[in-house]
Design goal:
This protein has four helices and seven strands, in the order H-E-H-E-E-E-H-E-E-E-H. It is α+β, with helices and mostly antiparallel strands. The protein has a five-stranded mixed β-sheet with strand order 2-3-4-6-5. The radius of gyration is 21 Å and the shape is globular. It starts with a helix and ends with a helix.
Length: about 160
């Protein structure tokens, strides 16, 4: 009995496992996903352009919408450092997307999709917590939400 009790005492939950290493979606791949999501929503994606923010800093719209003054900026860590206080801090998973204004009259609306919000695990080990498909679906959802919002708010 005593030996059985000692054997059972050693069968605990085990060591805590370290989280899988993660990486963010590459900017080139993200732009492809953004273009596809826009097309799925019936918007015509166009090449990006530089826009001056109301603060005076320039930002690159990675994918614009044909005939409209709004678009998407996929903000990498380098972009965020370069823009500094000209853009708001990244949104959390359960927070609203960040939109900034630009252009000469401030009519351009740019949604900021921060690269750090679209991560996947590094495909190391046997279990995956977040796959690239999950990250791409989240990015697609955010782009579609923005296009729908832009239409309901009647952005130019």
């Amino acid at each position: 009995m005593a030996a059985a009790a000692l054997a059972l005492a050693g069968c605990g939950p085990g060591e805590a496992r370290a989280p899988n290493p993660v990486r963010a979606l590459d900017e080139r791949r993200a732009i492809e996903v953004i273009r596809r999501a826009m097309a799925q929503e019936g918007a015509r994606p166009v090449l990006g352009r530089e826009v001056e923010l109301v603060s005076g800093q320039k930002i690159r719209i990675d994918v614009g919408v044909q005939g409209r003054a709004y678009g998407v900026a996929y903000v990498t860590e380098e972009d965020a450092r370069a823009l500094g206080a000209a853009i708001p801090p990244p949104n959390g998973q359960d927070e609203k997307l960040r939109i900034v204004r630009g252009g000469p009259d401030g009519a351009a609306r740019i949604v900021l999709l921060y690269q750090g919000n679209y991560v996947y695990d590094d495909l190391v080990g046997e279990s995956h917590e977040r796959t690239t498909i999950t990250a791409e679906r989240q990015l697609t959802r955010d782009v579609k939400d923005f296009i729908t919002y832009a239409r309901t708010q009647k952005f130019q």
